[in-house]
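Have a think about this chain, tokens included, and walk me through the fold.
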Amino acid sequence: MAIIYDPDTFVITIFSHNSANPNLEWRNSFNVQTAPDGSIAPGDAVVGALQQFIAGTQRNDSKVFKTTCRKWSRGAGPFFANPALWDDFTELVGYGYSDAGFVHGTAVPNGAPTVGEVVVRMAKQNSAPALRAPSIFLRNVIRNEDLLTVAGGPPSWKVDVSGYESLLNTFAETILGPYIGPPSGFPFLTNVEYSAKHSIGPNNIGVRAVVFKAVSMHDLGKSERGA
């Protein structure tokens, strides 16, 4: 199977890990469209915004430690087996519960880790709402103290922390606003519509909003590709 590229779309991947146990690692990916024949460099503002968005939702026992950039592609072999255009090893300690983080200074202790992979799921909503909205799974945002625990049931916020949903939405709009909804120009965040089976795409659809969807469970081994 030939590899399909979208020449003006790049995948920026933010790698994070637990500060005390760096082997506990996860990643979040975002598609970024540039002007024709454009490029993305580690120091570009859109890269910094994505790093700050992830770090600004995580507790301070997490750390963003690496960012990579690849051309958007589909085809034979694992996506991350393709060489990166660049790696950036900027380190950012999670600051979700600081004055600059998503809870805007709310004094919440780090607390105890959740049992299993309890995550916050946000959606990258399309400018064409009928199309699917890929998810962003945010780890290390919440702790056991934030959750109602019901054996066998889905995780959910305690009543007194349900306001986190609107705070997350506001934080996403503040940090990512220049690159979504619609943006004023290039670069901007995009979802890529592609199906080899149905001969669709790759077509870029601009992201109009990044919004809270649910407290959820997600397998740490199933990392995002930014699709």
Observations:
- The longest strand covers residues 200-217.
- Residues 164-176 form the longest helix (13 residues).
